[in-house]
Specification:
The chain is built from nine helices and seven strands; from the N terminus they run ββααββαβααβαβααα. It is α/β, with parallel strands linked by helices. Pfam families: CRAL_TRIO_2.
């Protein structure tokens, strides 16, 4: 259970124990700092990560600076499938994101192109609460400079999660900055071709969605035509007499 108390009211949030949500992510930045001080943990500062070595994460290329969108915002491309969630801690991910933005996007507005293609919740997705934690701990001028998040290939689960929990989890205006993009061709309405590199795995997934549009809604096609295979009872009724004659 996580509780948040204000001057005039009290709000209580109850979460199921099997959701695996870190309770600290439900606190505001000031509340987290207070909790860390009371527990004796060191308070993290954004400038602490500027000299840290992230060469191993750089090689994965899940977070790269690209060109600009049509509004002139620099593009920070995130490929979800390239992110190894099980082996990268939340704290290290937060430090890496902060260093990346501070060094590559020191000034000016920017946007995020997040590619959700073929992302698996256990392998590539750190979770909505973790993303909220990272976003809220960024310096305020970073958050102000983020203008839009292009969410490519969101899928039905992501849309439902955002619709039901997004307004509460994604505070500070981040929820309203998200723009869903179902196909790569629609991305070119806001970004000129050549300004952002599309990995092959993303292009292949886009082709699958183009030929199987119901996949967007979590409905997988019957590629093996199981619906056309007769049931065992039907097969027995149909061929029972023939088998009886052949073996008598």
């Amino acid at each position: 259970m996580a509780m948040r108390e204000a001057s005039d009211d009290l709000s209580v949030v109850v979460l199921a124990s099997d959701l695996g949500v870190d309770g600290r992510t439900l606190l505001s930045p000031s509340e987290r700092r207070l909790a860390e001080e009371e527990s004796g943990e060191a308070t993290w500062q954004w400038h602490d990560c500027m000299e840290e070595n992230f060469s191993d994460l750089e090689q994965l290329q899940f977070l790269r600076l690209q060109g600009s969108d049509k509004a002139g915002n620099r593009i920070l491309r995130i490929v979800g499938k390239f992110f190894p969630a099980p082996v990268v801690t939340v704290e290290r991910l937060k430090r890496y994101v902060t260093q990346k933005i501070n060094m590559d996007l020191a000034e000016g507005p920017f946007c995020i192109v997040y590619m959700h293609s073929k992302v698996q919740s256990g392998d590539n997705n750190p979770g909505m609460s973790v993303l909220r934690w990272i976003y809220e701990d960024l310096p305020s001028h970073f958050k102000d400079r983020l203008k839009v998040v292009y969410f490519l290939h969101p899928g039905i689960r992501s849309r439902l999660a955002m619709a039901t929990l997004g307004r509460w989890f994604l505070t500070g205006g981040l929820y309203w900055k998200i723009k869903y993009v179902s196909r790569i061709e629609y991305l070119w309405e806001d970004i000129r071709k050549g300004q952002v590199e599309i990995p092959e795995i993303v292009s292949e997934h886009d082709e699958v969605l183009e030929h199987r549009p119901l996949t967007d809604y979590g409905i997988e096609p019957d590629t093996l035509h199981f619906s056309e295979v007769p049931t065992i009872r039907h097969a027995q009724d149909r061929y029972g007499d023939k088998w009886s004659r052949d073996f008598m």
